[in-house]
Design brief:
Elements (H helix, E strand, L loop, with lengths): L1 H20 L2 H33 L4 H25 L1 H20 L8 H15 L4 H26 L4 H30 L1 H14 L2 H9 L3 H53 L5 H29 L2 H11 L18 E9 L9 E9 L3 E5 L6 H8 L7 E6 L2 E2 L5 H5 L2 E4 L10 H6 L6 H11 L2 H4 L21 H14 L4 E5 L7 H14 L4 E6 L10 E6 L2 E6 L1 H7 L2 H18 L1
Parallel strand pairs: 3-8, 3-9, 6-7, 7-8
Antiparallel strand pairs: 1-2, 1-4, 4-5, 9-10
Helix pairs in contact: 1-12, 2-3, 2-6, 2-11, 3-6, 4-6, 5-12, 6-11, 7-10, 7-11, 8-10, 10-11, 16-18
């Protein structure tokens, strides 16, 4: 019964989605049902009337014309209804894809670090990946509505002979539904249980055609290794598919047995009725023709049902995922203030699914207008600290305040307007130069020229124009930027947004130490009204910052100005002395 309830819920959700998209589609389905019923009844009468005329040796031309015209018009109108209805499958499928994409883009970042959530994302997209999901349901629905018209007429017609015929027909249908729902639920359980295997399989497919992996795959001759991994996954997938195939085979055998019993009973009743002279030979001919139509109609319905039965649990999950309550629904807008500060108070943090603490009892304050250098060795959590600051991750415990308000209670969209980050990842989109710099931000060409000059990339791109496409993912003649140029472009993107807090997360790793120092110094001088966070394991930015924060061993190891930390002769002093000689060597070179 649980499977039946779940299936009914799936169908009601899909109908609700169709109602939301276009209510007139229901009229098309009803019209198709009616025309199909009329067509079936006319086709039912035709052999009876023809055979009667032959036996009586008298042709009723008017009756034949009426029947043929009825068959032609009802068939034509049914085809027109199906033609008008067909686009709904594509429309709703791609609309739901868009809604899923939007949902994922607004999903809290920390969920993308959670393997359970990644498995969930793969499961909810399943009904939209092939014609056997949402689209298949809507495409089959037009055919099913016509088939139901056939069955409605046949039940009414055969009931007059003996009620056992429609009863057996309905019983067989109910039994088939139960078997297919059980099989679909079993298949869904297999897919859900082994989703991590499928995710690994998709990942291997992706890296085989991902340009960012292409060099390593070839230089290190990793193709055979990846192929071996793929073979192992295929074996594991086959092990999960075998029980599903056996279940389907079992249902197929049962279905054949039930069809044999159903057809035997139906034809048996007709033969008995004929010899008992309950029905005439012409009527017997019409009923046998009707039985064949019913069989064809059930094949259409079962094909549509087969399409949906495998996907119905994942369709439920998809709609539940889309309708999940937004954690930010009750959040307040960013408090308005002429000055602000962001305070970390006893913050602990570890990543989802990982018990290792990145930070323990982290406390510090970021004040408006300050230039703060966040330094430390690789892997100590500098970038993680910035993600906490921007609200991309919630603290495991403790609180981060913006002017005394917990940032978890502030609407994320308004809170994000404080920040213009430059991350370590070089994410260049396959769109124009201008789109990569501004997206929907209103920034004039004159401003872009000034900003790109400030970051030192204008001379590299000025000959191409702002409409030049970047990367060759879409445009075969797209502009390919070097690592250093990409970093400068991302820096220009951040500056184009004119936000209060500029976060530079090692955006100059592709530059040499002297160039990095000069770049930081220039940004510091030209944007002295902004709050700027310089994040690096190199110390090019530290001497001119108001405050320096050294991260080590899950907390802040040292905090103060450059002069104060040098006088203490602690870890910062040692790092600075080691790196200072490289700057001197670069100058000598």
């Amino acid at each position: 019964m649980e499977n039946i309830r779940t299936f009914k819920k799936t169908v009601s959700l899909l109908f609700a989605e169709m109602w939301k998209q276009k209510k007139s589609y229901f009229l098309l389905l009803f019209a198709n049902f009616c025309f199909s019923g009329i067509y079936t009844y006319a086709l039912f009468l035709l052999p009876k009337e023809v055979l009667t005329m032959l036996m009586q040796k008298e042709i009723d031309a008017q009756m034949l014309i009426v029947l043929f015209v009825t068959i032609f018009i009802s068939s034509l109108m049914g085809a027109v209804m199906r033609y008008l209805y067909t686009p709904i499958g594509y429309t709703i499928r791609y609309q739901l894809m868009f809604e899923l994409m939007k949902k994922n883009m607004y999903m809290p970042l920390h969920k993308f670090e959670d393997p359970e959530h990644l498995d969930k994302q793969e499961l909810v997209i399943l009904p939209l990946q092939s014609i056997e999901g949402v689209q298949g349901f809507y495409l089959q629905l037009a055919h099913i509505s016509g088939a139901l018209g056939v069955i409605a007429v046949s039940i009414g017609a055969t009931f007059q002979i003996h009620p056992i015929i429609p009863i057996i027909t309905i019983a067989w249908f109910v039994l088939y539904v139960k078997l297919k729902l059980d099989a679909g639920n079993f298949a869904d359980h297999q897919v859900k249980t082994n989703q991590s295997i499928w995710r690994e399989s998709f990942y291997l497919n992706d890296i085989s055609r991902d340009a960012s992996f292409a060099k390593e795959l070839r230089v290190y001759r990793m193709q055979d290794y990846i192929h071996e991994k793929r073979e192992q996954i295929i074996k594991r997938i086959q092990a999960t598919l075998t029980p599903m195939e056996r279940k389907e085979s079992h249902i197929l055998h049962l279905d054949n047995v039930y069809q044999f019993i159903r057809d035997g009973v139906m034809y048996g009743v007709l033969i008995v009725a004929y010899f008992a002279k309950t029905i005439s030979l012409p009527l017997f001919s019409s009923y046998t023709s009707l039985v064949m139509q019913v069989n064809s109609a059930f094949e259409v319905i079962f094909e549509g049902f087969r399409t949906l039965s495998f996907r119905y649990p994942s369709i439920i999950r998809m709609f539940e995922y889309l309708h999940e309550e937004d954690d930010q629904k009750q959040a307040q807008p960013l408090p308005e203030a002429s000055t602000w500060e962001i305070v970390f108070e006893h913050v602990d943090f570890h990543y989802p699914g990982n018990t290792h603490m990145v930070f323990k009892d982290l406390n510090f304050t970021l004040r408006q207008g300050k230039k703060l250098a966040i330094i430390g060795l690789n892997g100590v959590g500098k970038t993680t600290m910035m993600k906490l600051l921007m609200g991309l991750y919630p603290p495991t415990s403790g609180t981060i305040y913006f002017n005394g308000v917990d940032i978890q209670n502030i609407d994320k969209e308004s809170y994000f307007t404080l920040f213009a980050p430059v991350f370590q990842e070089l994410n260049i989109f396959p769109y124009s130069l201008k789109e990569n710099l501004t997206f929907q931000n209103d920034c004039s060409d004159e401003e872009l020229v000034e900003i790109t000059k400030q970051v030192g990339i204008y001379e590299d791109i000025k000959t191409y124009g702002w409409d030049k496409q970047l990367t060759r993912f879409v445009d075969s003649e797209g502009l390919l930027l070097s690592g250093g140029q990409s970093q400068k472009l991302l820096m220009a993107r951040a500056l184009a947004y004119h936000r209060d807090i500029l976060i530079l997360d090692e955006p100059t790793s592709a530059l040499d130490p002297i160039a990095e120092y000069e770049f930081y110094h220039k940004i510091n001088n030209e944007y002295n009204d902004k709050t700027i966070l310089f994040i690096s394991h190199r110390l090019a930015s530290t001497s001119f910052c108001d405050e320096i924060l050294l991260v080590d061993a899950q907390n802040i190891s040292e905090f103060g100005t450059h002069e104060e930390l040098m006088q203490r002769k602690g870890m910062y002093y040692d790092l600075f002395q080691v790196q200072a000689k490289y700057y001197k060597e670069e100058e000598l070179a």
